[in-house]
Amino acid sequence: MLDRFTPNVTPCGRTRREFLWEVGGGFAGLGLIDLLSRDGFFAKDARGSGLAYANEVTNAADSAIHPLAPKAPHFGGAKHCVFLFMNGGPSQVDTFDPKPTLERFHGTAYSGKAKVGSNGRPIGYLMKSPFPFRPHGESGLPISSLFPHTAKHADDICVIRSMHADTAAHASGCLQMNTGSVLIGKPSLGAWLSYGLGTENANLPSFVVMTDPRGGPIGSASNWTGGFMPAAYQGTLFRSQGSPLLDLATPAGVSDRTQRRSLDLLGELNREHLARRRLGLRPDLTASASKDGRVGNPTYGNDSELVARILSYELAYQMQTTAADVVDLSQETQQTQEMYGLNNPRTADFARKCLITRRLIERGVRFIQLYSGGGHIEDTWDGHNDCITNHTVHAGETDQPVGALMTDLKQRGLWDETLLVWGGEFGRTPTSEGVNKPGRDHDWHGFSMWLAGAGTRGGQAIGATDELGFAAVDEPCHVSDLHATILHLMGLDHERLTFFYKGLEERITGTRGNVVKKAIA
Questions:
Q1: What's the pTM value of the predicted model, to 2 decimals?
Q2: Cα–chain center distance at 211
Q3: What three-state secondary structure class fits 52?
Q4: Is 315 helix (H, G, I), strand (E, B) or coil?
Q5: I need a labelling partner for 468 at 20 to 30 A (CA). Which of 143, 279, 355, 395 fits?
Q6: 127-149 per-position pLDDT tens digit
Q7: What is the torsional sign of CA 380, 384, 385, 386?
Q8: Are 10 and 19 in contact (CB under 8 A)?
């Protein structure tokens, strides 16, 4: 008599589980992964993963695990970040990277090894900067004449002269600078910061974007997307004129009490719908069998869009008061408005955005991105035709507002908790675009950006391009290094700030990224 159970031996010599796991090179194991994902097996160890988020936030309005609830940083850092995005690619040799050698070889043909030219555009001669550089502040940091107001803060600015990227195209360049990848679909820097730190103000978005009235960047909303993260982390586009968001005002004839009751009912219905989706129930089916005796198939789609929509209704209700207030610049003194340049048609738009930025910071918004330049070519910093006129226009529109923002943050005690980032998707070549033409082409091999504010060591230039300004040669800083440094200054370790997606612990720096330690105070 057998004293133990002996399983039947399968023809392949494996158990049924082993057979299912190994057949077809393990392809059948995908089914197991799907089942484990439905049970939350992978999500339980992943901070903020998409599935964990959908499972946790059933009652989105009341949940203690609100996706934008404040979170502790990995270590001390800034509370806010402002990215001043110079869309189109400002020229490093005309802004923050003086090249005396260019003056010596001005008007001569370039015969070096660096690749020059993009999309078959004509290549002209080496061209010196028409904007003189001079040292500023006690540090003697060289800044061109394009930025007289920014230059007053030279001792607070940390210029990285050795930036380099992976693409010469505007669309992919903006994507990489914003998301760390040249491909669409990755979370943006603002989304990562919202995910990692949450927000300090539940009545305003954690991540606000303000574009140029001439248009947005190439790639549009993919530059401030939440990517594969829950949609609550994506950027909210504010208009700098009029109401910050369209259709934000309460409809005429609707009382606050009526609107509140309507939103409460809508929230209840949406939460019920979300609960059904989490249980895998279709709205038209209950636990009872259908006509043919079968119950509907469970659906386990990504619920983050629905959860974000539930949250957005409540946020929009709160913003009817707070958002209108934050853009009401009539509350500012005349002296403040004049300091920003609000009364000058040339600077008025960017001045308004910078002043709104300070007001958003005061109210706890985590990440604000301002775009200078919109559309294409000369409407941006993309000075193909005439870099001299182009940069004179765009620097003239932004320099005074940026300088005023820096001054204002210091006066109001916000400087030490706010990080400022200035730059574009790449730089421009030291050569002209065609003979006797003052335009410059794209240069992704070497360009300049600067950091200032909380935690940065100002009054210095880090790294260097070659003697003509084509490529980074000393302490090169890849876009991933910049992102790692920004996260560090915000109190986050880029290697620890991960999001579990499709079996990988994703991060904005990918498999790269090193903190630029010289930039840290």
A1: 0.82
A2: 13
A3: helix
A4: helix
A5: 395
A6: 999 999 999 999 999 999 999 99
A7: positive
A8: yes
* pLDDT tens digits for range 450-462: 999 999 999 999 9
Q: Of 166-180, 272-286, 358-372, where does mean pLDDT reach its minimum?
A: 272-286
> Which residue, 365, 450, 351, 357, is CA-closest to 400?
351
Residues 6+ apart with CB under 8 A from 134: 142, 143, 145
Q: How many angstroms separate the CA atoms of 443 and 102, rounded? A: 16
Cβ–Cβ under 8 Å, residues 467 and 99 = yes
pLDDT of residue 333: 97
Burial of 27 per CB tally in 10 Å (0-12, 13-18, 19+): exposed
> Can you tell me the distance from the alpha carbon of 250 to that of 324, in angstroms, rounded to the nearest whole number?
12
Burial 82-118 (b: 16+ CB within 10 A, else e): bbbbbbbbbbbbbbbbbbeebeebeeeebeeebebeb
Site of tokens 């990918």: 510
* Nearest of 40, 345, 326, 342 to residue 205 by alpha carbon: 326
Question: How many other C-beta atoms can be found within 10 angstroms of the C-beta atom of residue 505?
Answer: 14
